[in-house]
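Consider the record:
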Amino acid sequence: MTDRARPGFRPVTWPRLTDALADRVTATATHDGSPWPRVALDGAPAARPGERADALADALRLRGRPVHRVSAHGFLRPASLRLEYGRRDPDAYYDLWLDDGALWREVFGPLGPDGTGRVLPDLWDPATDRATRSPYTTLPPGGVLLLDGPLLLGRGFPLDLAVHLRLTPAALARRTPEAERWTLPAFARYEDETRPGETADVVVRTDDPRHPAWNG
């Protein structure tokens, strides 16, 4: 069933949505006994997943929950690997840009059931193509991992709550800057292969950013 076919989508404001998601996160039990709930806000850059994740982080902190914010942008591979097939290869964008192994090593592994909680916020700066050298931090038990970025689902990450910010192909094309439209085939492939509108726990329709709707 596609997200269009799902019943129960209803309009919501961003502040009310953020509060509802924060309440849901605080009530979420981890699927594997980890003391750290792991949450992802998945969406194309045009859907502004980072902005939505920052707002959710603020709401969680107001509820007394420590948050470890991670953006996929800080875990991209070096340019020599990321751009091996050119700067505008949509399949490379889909398959090669995100360093899944680094995320497992520096974030998901330490936040597993037997983890230490010692994590990094980022690893690589794609603008300078150098390691960020950010310091490790320790997330206390009960703290929340909040990851944002595109193409996050279907990678086997141990997520306890996955939120997909949905854009129809037409809205995605309309809201994606001209210089980034070469990525559109990657998102079409994502829809075909991963079906994020079906696999995510929560889907938020964001075609009109002023009037979101969700199935929560």
Observations:
- The helical segments are 14-27, 49-62, 79-82, 90-95, 100-108, 169-175, 184-193, 196-199.
- The chain has a mean pLDDT of 95.
